[in-house]
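ok so for the tutorial part 2 we go from a plain amino acid sequence to predicted structure tokens. step 1 is just haveing the sequence, like this:
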Amino acid sequence: MTEVPSARGAEVGRRIGVGLMYGFWKPRVLGAWRVPATGPVLLAVNHSHNIDGPMVMGVAPRPTHFLIKQEAFIGPLDPFLTGIGQVKVDRNTTDRTAISRALGVLQQGGVLGIFPEGTRGEGDFASLRAGLAYFALRGGAPIVPVAVLGSSGQGGRLIKALPPLRSRVDVVFGDPFDAGDGSGRRTRKALDEATERIQKQLTAHLENARRLTGR
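step 2 — the prediction. this is what the tokens look like for a chain of 215 residues:
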């Protein structure tokens, strides 16, 4: 039986995230109240900075278990990330252990964080993978879109992939929505249709978040 990631560990991770994110940057959190207070939830996060995961982990109102590429689990980071309830995933194959652990989080009424674009890029939700739709349909969980909008200025960057230190980073949570059409279908066609629905919702949320924050 696959071990479900630790909910207590994720709460510890949230506290560490709060300290780090508010220590190095100036997070401004909008709409966190939209995250359902109980039950399984999927946070769909755009991905343009390396701090997106830790930032959302720190400012989300509930402990969050992120699906994280196995390449990040190197050296001492491996036991640390596992200890704070994060899920290691091999992106080069159908990682059944990761899938089982992620579904376990949802079955226990937890929060699963996913970067639906798969890798760090433009952060505009332009190319979605079917993974998010799969977890939404299998786990019966609503999706909350999350837009992380960092500073686009170059000054003050110590590391290229990170926003400048002490710059403002906006995290905007959207309204939860269901990816399915209400039929309960989990066929390939249903997954494709759900992915299309998700993409429209996430893109609309990102556009709204940009208008809201002026980013």
